[in-house]
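From the methods appendix. Each design record in this collection lists the tokenized structure first, followed by the designed amino acid sequence. Records were kept in a plain field format so they could be parsed without special tools. The example shown here is representative of the layout used throughout.

RECORD:
FOLD TOKENS (445 positions):
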């Protein structure tokens, strides 16, 4: 067995938990749930001697993280409880390949019911815009002359190197991008460790330029997001949008960075009001859409725009709607043909019925907090759902009635406040078993 299942790996952490939560663990049903990952962890706060406690935390975390690396795992969750005979019992929980890691106890995120499935916006391809043409400002010859004046000593790419990049990407490079790389191929080796030379290239071009062999296609796969967030997004392109509202596109060729983590790309699949070859900014804090930086690469280099323009987001009513129980209009007001995502929440008011949603052609996501649905079995009338996230009691109703929608690609469990972890894990396994997906592994030490 992996050392992640060795008691010695966990002993320093167990001491921390028992010291910090002795009364909690002694109470009937008392437990402490946490997680250790390569990028974060949940531990009790140091109790008596903060400096020594922090050192103990470091020792406890590093031991488990080393075991994770040895096992090829990114994270693991755990539950500490007191058994009836008084002994401490540790449950090591490996969510497995069919479960995304969650952010709250018991750290179970969305359940992937179909291997490799992604939400609809991540499957969306660009719409053809036959009338799109390059902007009047696009001028590869002027671009090349300007960059040679600014970078007289730069080492450019050969035609063979450019052809190799096209073969690797699977698309021909637009003429402006070829002109740029004929002036400089932006390789660190060409600058011989001279940071000033790299800065000169960035200043000349207007961004941190990727080397020619660092170009990539910014398609949807390059912008992953957890199901619990991605399923509630919508990809919408307005009739007057310059940039299509996509997660990614096979026509977005990423060539640089603005220095803050946002990627710059040449856009070969523009929106209805855009231009072929325009420069877009892919915001690293967003999961859908991009902003317009310049209508051409030539325009960006010559005019030096300082920001970018982003079309209004598409994930707003009537495409995405949120309903609180007690809202006037409620579900009836949200039930429009364009509706793709509905979130039902609230703690005050009468639970809502879902009958007005039956037959909506595009409804694919429903999330509902505990106590908000008058009759969970009305979900059977929502035939297009691919993502459903419900409270445990509502899932129980569907499971007992054998009414879990068969076309779901993923599922979530809505939890309010701290709940006993094992019933949640059992419910997750029951949903996974419906589709013969790998179950959550629990090892008791």
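DESIGN:
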């Amino acid at each position: 067995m992996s050392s992640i299942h060795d008691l010695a790996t966990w002993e320093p952490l167990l001491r921390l938990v028992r010291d910090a939560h002795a009364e909690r663990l002694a109470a009937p049903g008392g437990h402490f749930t946490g997680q250790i990952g390569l990028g974060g962890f949940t531990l009790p706060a140091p109790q008596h001697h903060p400096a020594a406690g922090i050192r103990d935390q470091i020792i406890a975390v590093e031991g488990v993280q080393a075991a994770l690396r040895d096992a090829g795992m990114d994270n693991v969750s755990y539950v500490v409880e007191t058994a009836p005979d008084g002994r401490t019992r540790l449950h090591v929980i490996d969510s497995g390949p069919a479960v995304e890691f969650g952010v709250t106890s018991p750290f179970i995120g969305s359940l992937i019911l179909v291997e490799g499935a992604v939400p609809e916006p991540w499957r969306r391809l660009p719409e053809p815009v036959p009338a799109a043409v390059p902007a009047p400002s696009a001028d590869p010859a002027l671009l090349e002359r300007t960059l040679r004046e600014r970078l007289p000593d730069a080492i450019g790419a050969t035609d063979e190197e450019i052809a190799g990049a096209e073969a690797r990407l699977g698309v021909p490079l637009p003429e402006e991008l070829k002109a740029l790389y004929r002036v400089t191929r932006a390789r660190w080796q060409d600058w011989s460790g001279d940071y000033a030379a790299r800065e000169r290239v960035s200043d000349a071009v207007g961004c941190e330029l990727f080397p020619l062999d660092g170009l990539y296609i910014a398609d949807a796969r390059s912008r992953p997001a957890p199901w619990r967030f991605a399923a509630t997004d919508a990809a919408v392109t307005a009739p007057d949008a310059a940039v299509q509202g996509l997660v990614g596109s096979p026509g977005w060729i990423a060539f640089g960075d603005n220095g803050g983590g946002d990627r710059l790309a040449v856009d070969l699949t523009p929106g209805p009001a855009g231009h072929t070859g325009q420069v877009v900014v892919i915001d690293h804090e967003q999961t859908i859409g991009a902003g317009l930086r310049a209508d051409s690469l030539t325009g960006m280099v010559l005019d030096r725009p300082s920001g970018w323009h982003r079309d209004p987001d598409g994930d707003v009513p009537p495409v995405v709607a949120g309903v609180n129980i007690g809202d006037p209009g409620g579900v009836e007001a949200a039930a429009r043909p364009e509706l793709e995502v509905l979130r039902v929440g609230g703690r005050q008011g009468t639970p809502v019925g879902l009958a007005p949603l039956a037959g909506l052609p595009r409804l694919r996501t429903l999330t509902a907090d505990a106590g908000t649905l008058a009759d969970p079995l009305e979900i059977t009338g929502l035939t297009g759902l691919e993502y459903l996230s419900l409270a445990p009691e509502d899932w129980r109703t569907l499971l007992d009635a054998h009414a879990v929608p068969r076309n779901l690609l993923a599922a979530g469990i809505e939890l309010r406040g701290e709940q006993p972890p094992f019933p949640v894990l059992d419910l997750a396994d029951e949903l996974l078993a419906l589709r013969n997906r790998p179950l959550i592994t629990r090892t008791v030490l």
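APPENDIX NOTE: Residues 50-71 form the longest helix (22 residues).
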